[in-house]
Fold this protein.
Amino acid sequence: MAAPISYHEVNGGVDGTMHGTDRVIGLRAQKGGAICVAVTIDNDEPRLLLSTFLPTAAEGDRLAFEPYGVAREMALEGRKAEAAMAVAEGRRRQDEAAADELRRVVARLGAAPVTVALLINRAGWISDLLAYSLEWAEHVPVAEGLAVRDAFRTGCRNCGLVMAEVDEKSLPVQAADALGRSASEIDARLKAMGITAGRPWRKEQKLAALSAWMAGANIK
């Protein structure tokens, strides 16, 4: 099970007064977990509720943190059968942690309906992550991120959450169209949200926030 997460709640955030208003969680998966930004929409404007990181591995649990890195090392030692078993166990732990973290975020957000916007890329053609990882060492980081993304996809399903998959590459164009705003207007709003959220507020947090904003606007 993953270690407790640290929530960064913002002014006017989760205070129990927003019950009945949809909240949207934007997730961007990466090795070790997912960046999580939650918003609600007030008068067509996104209001930041929390910005945090949801780990899929407890501290010191390398198998859950990088199952494909561990598996590649095993395979290079001629232990391919063990490598496959290691991946299965590592991903089982990731799935469990992702579901646990999602439940805790949803509980923190209150009784309002919750939707998840999960950022994806165009690597869906990779059907066998273990075989992909064994081909080249450079493939391993990609596989780790895709495994975490799959863990949160499974977690959403296990938690009964409505989930929308959002293509990361085309998100800026999609968002401008869906929100009816220019790229500069969107960027200015995201920067303002970052001032409220505090650090870290990098490209990854902005993408998660934008995916949640767009999904929330579609709900309305």
Remarks:
- The first helix runs from residue 62 to 65.
- The CA atoms of residues 40 and 46 lie 6 Å apart.
